[in-house]
User: Fold these one by one.
Assistant:
Number 1:
Amino acid sequence: MAEPVELMKRVDGADAPMTGEESYVYFKINPSDTNYINRILEGYEYVGVMTTLDNTSRSMVRCTPDTRELAIEILTSLGDKVYFEK
């Protein structure tokens, strides 16, 4: 008999099915910093994938629940180059 699978808990604590998006980190950057920040994130393998969302430099990192805090730490360490969305 197979053992029961433990479901992952949502990062936001809600009682709804996880879609994966609750682990994403949304932020704004200067368009000229896009490549620089993406390269830094790529240097930390398996943290997440950065994507720009529109031409105003809204961006996101697709993280997992396990890597979300590290992605936030990395982006926070860049100081005023990153503005987190609420």
Number 2:
Amino acid sequence: MGRVPGARVPGKPFEVHVVPSAVYCAAVTVQFTAPVIPAHGLYCNGGGTVDRRAPQPCPAGMGFSNQADGGLRVTGYELQYATFPDFRDARTVVASVVAGTEELPVTVNIGQHMGHPLQPGITYYVRTAARNNLGVGPFCARADGLCDGAQLAALPSAACA
């Protein structure tokens, strides 16, 4: 009889970007998509040659939609922002995921409109992690699909008049 892997926390969010908000004052916009690479860090090839810069979703043999979700539906994301690159002063924002939208891109605006005022002129560092019923997966604090680019940081949009 074959063995089936147990459920795990999800992998890192994919293609994470942070920019000044174009919608809200004193805010930054964080955009990303659902995890593509499982939490263990080994990415799938989607049945073809492995491309580190464009990994394909893992097969749906285990998991809600693919193995990168840890075997359970992604229920939300934790976003942390800080003025120090080591996140010693981090504040956390939680974003829920509506069932059926797990594969859609996610956009979160962090700023005064949420009760989290950001100071214009100060660089904010951002990281995000996916969550399922087992817990929170690893954080992505760097840009690009594999979270190995530049550290995610942005100046917030201008203050409200």
